[in-house]
Design a protein that fits this description.
Number of helices: 3
Helix content: 25-40%
Radius of gyration: 17 Å
Distance between the termini: 26 Å
Number of strands: 8
Structural class: alpha+beta
Largest sheet: 8 strands, antiparallel
Order of helices and strands: HEEEEHEEEEH
Strand content: 25-35%
Shape: globular
């Protein structure tokens, strides 16, 4: 009985992975594919976020002058990329907003219009691509403004976080 339930569980998992792989690929702003198996050769360091989830800072395959930090979250057992984050520091909110609007335009050409588009100093632009989201946002902290683009696969994130 246990062997049968284990076999069914493995079959269900394989079907869900196949379904994820059948979706159109989303390549992050630095050349890493959302939902792909993670290649640990690019790891610079392993970190832990405020919620105690591990992530990796990486040296990306396609670095951009717009970003200085690249982070990846992966599922613990299947080693699939479920979140990509690229962030860059700017000295003025105006420069950050200009870069953000450029990325929003490019993403809109690829994925259609954003479901939320309040690109301002405090508001994000959010794209929904099936179970995946892309968020472009400028965030202000004392002395700097950060451009952050976050790509997340909700199904894989749920798997990774055990929800």
């Amino acid at each position: 009985m246990i062997a049968r339930s284990t076999l069914l569980l493995l079959l269900a998992f394989q079907l869900s992975v196949s379904a994820l792989q059948a979706q159109d690929p989303i390549i992050g702003a630095f050349g890493v594919e959302l939902g792909a198996a993670f290649d640990r050769k690019a790891v610079v360091s392993q970190e832990t976020d405020k919620i105690h989830y591990d992530y990796y800072l990486i040296d990306p395959p396609a670095a951009s002058y717009e970003f200085q930090h690249y982070a990846i979250y992966v599922t613990p057992f299947t080693n699939l990329v479920y979140t990509l984050i690229a962030s860059g520091r700017y000295f003025t909110p105006g420069r950050c907003l200009k870069m953000a609007q450029s990325h929003v335009s490019e993403l809109a050409r690829k994925h259609g219009p954003p479901v939320e588009n309040d690109i301002s100093e405090f508001g994000p632009a959010r794209f929904a691509v099936g179970p995946r989201t892309i968020v472009v946002q400028c965030e202000t902290s004392p002395g700097f403004t950060y451009l952050r683009i976050t790509y997340t696969d909700a199904q894989l994130a749920q798997e990774a976080r055990g929800s």
